[in-house]
Amino acid sequence: MNTIKLSAPTTKEFWEIPVLFEDEHLLALDKPSGLLTSPDRYNLERPNLMQLLHQGIAAKKPWSATRGLTYLSNAHRLDAETTGVLLLAKNKPALIHLANLFSIDKVQQKYFALASGLPSSDEFVMDARIASNVVELGLMRIDNRDGMKSKTEFSIAEKFSGYVALNCHPRSNRNHQIRIHLKHAGFPIVGDTLYGGKPLWLSRLKKDFYLKRGREERPLMARVALHSEELCFPHTITGETIAITSPIPKDLRVALRYLREFRGNGRTFGAPEDEE
Questions:
Q1: Which tens digit of pLDDT belongs to each residue from 32-73?
Q2: Please, which residues bridge with residue 142 across strands?
Q3: 146 and 253 co-located in one domain
């Protein structure tokens, strides 16, 4: 597999990140959970993807030297716990083009989310303005008077008792958009404690759950259960439609497997199959 290997000596963390798409202008990576896209304004010591990439280019790491890289910049961001497709530009003209596409909502984005609750309709739309939360820094809130226009379309991928898997199509590009829209709709994302979501525990799903004495249960899903599954956009140079996809990560697949076993009701809508 074509991967980029990154390490953060200060935290002794290591990542082997798959390359999903690459040509002379663009690079798309499969971002792992727990890694920031760019620096955290509240914790500058925390490792982030762009800093590690730039350090690798400066140090002429093998993944950089073989590509002849001198420039990389992210065209958008994913939250630290969100996984999936992250698109980078290898030169400034490509970055400007991609920034324009995102600004006029010409990049079609598809996310996969696991949320609590069950919508009354198999498809629904959240068209609610989003603004920064002035009380809790770093969070967002719904503000239909002073917020920025924001729209997300949702469709059910699979239903469970008490939970739902959703395909999410943001039609704008606001910070925490899917997370705050689902909270406002009453279906917080599993593991999204900042917006009312709770971890997924096997003990809450399985009636005869038993934990050996002295052992501590770990949640099936503790992080924000949100995955950037696909980006579709016109290429910066050729104009050809490019579709970049990322497979559902293992932790989400495991969560889905247990939900199907203990909370399934047979209602599926093309949901991703579980894999070992």
A1: 999 999 987 766 778 999 999 999 999 999 999 999 999 999
A2: 130
A3: yes
